Amino acid sequence: MSLPVQFSGITVLTKANIYFDGKVVSHTVQLPDGAKKTLGLIYPGSYHFGTGAPERMEIVAGACRVTLDGQAAVKEYPAGTWFDVPGQSGFTIEVSAGLCEYICSFL
Predict the structure, then answer these.
(1) Quick one: average pLDDT of 59-74?
(2) End-to-end CA distance of the chain
(3) DSSP string, 28-66
(4) In the chain, where are the structural domains located?
(5) Considering the domain 11-106 in this protein, what is its CATH number?
(6) Nearest to residue 56, comparing CAs of 78, 81, 79?
(7) What's this model's pTM, rounded to 2 decimal places?
């Protein structure tokens, strides 16, 4: 699977989504078909997120380590990879150095 490098014909919401005192920041984009995605940055640290709907996190740049709720395994995700998170669940994402850039799609 190839990660997108741009989205055409989108609407961008100008208000940022800011979490963990600015350590995780994203912007929401709406595609022409009504689908919603967020594009964001994660600074070094460990953060837990809950999900309502299922999500796909695509790592655009940098790297992270992820533990899905209810699982003991920690998996590494470098740029160019992705992971899915079930709805009504959550995950812990850790960035050890640099920035991790991502696209979050709501499935």
Answers:
(1) 97
(2) 16
(3) EEE-TTS-EEEEEEE-SEEEEEE-SS-EEEEEEESEEEE
(4) 11-106
(5) 2.60.120.10
(6) 81
(7) 0.92
